[in-house]
């Protein structure tokens, strides 16, 4: 699979405790992206953050499992990302979703 040079970054901000039908939401997002054959997805775990509630989430020693912030990033063509958005909307109850146009310089092995 080749990503076009002009692509889109889909960035999804959620929390570790967010769920989709009993499973971690980040897991559902990655599996659905794979099922739809998007180019790839990465889940990044944040050490500290806050969202619309302004509740602070931190990885300090005494609060190690306190719903840390997660970011799921997916890069693909604008058309494929746009096709994924309704699926994402169907499984997310809260969170922040951003889209960013970008230029891909390299993906996968060079031929």
Segments where pLDDT lies below 50 for 5+ residues?
none
**Helical segment tally?**
2
Domains, number: 1
Helix/strand order: EEEHEEEEHE
Count of individual beta strands: 8
**CATH level-3 fold name:** Alpha-Beta Plaits
Q: What percent of residues are in strands?
A: 35-45%
The CATH first-level class comes to: Alpha Beta
Helix proportion of residues, in percent?
A: 10-25%
What is the straight-line distance between the termini?
Answer: 13 Å
Residue-averaged pLDDT, rounded?
88
Shape: globular
Give the strand order of the largest sheet, numbering strands 1, 2, ... along the chain: 4-7-1-8
What is the SS-derived class?
alpha+beta
Biggest pleated sheet: 4 strands, antiparallel
Second-tier CATH architecture: 2-Layer Sandwich
Radius of gyration: 15 Å
Tell me what you see in this structure.
This protein has 111 residues and is an alpha+beta fold. It has a single domain, classed as 2-Layer Sandwich (Alpha-Beta Plaits), CATH 3.30.70.120. It is built from 2 helices and 8 strands, in the order βββαββββαβ. The strands form 3 sheets. Strands 4-7-1-8 form a 4-stranded antiparallel β-sheet. β5 and β6 (57-58) form a beta hairpin. The longest helix is centred in the C-terminal third of the chain and has 14 residues, at 78-91. It is globular.
């Amino acid at each position: 699979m080749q990503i076009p040079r002009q692509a889109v970054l889909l960035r999804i901000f959620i929390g570790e405790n967010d769920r989709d039908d009993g499973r971690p939401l980040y897991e559902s997002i990655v599996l659905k992206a794979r099922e739809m054959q998007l180019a790839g997805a990465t889940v990044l775990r944040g050490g500290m953050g806050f969202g619309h509630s302004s509740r602070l989430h931190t990885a300090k020693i005494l609060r190690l499992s306190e719903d840390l912030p997660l970011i799921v990033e997916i890069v693909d063509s604008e058309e494929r990302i746009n096709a994924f958005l309704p699926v994402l909307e169907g499984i997310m109850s809260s969170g922040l979703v951003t889209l960013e146009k970008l230029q891909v310089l390299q993906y996968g092995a060079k031929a």
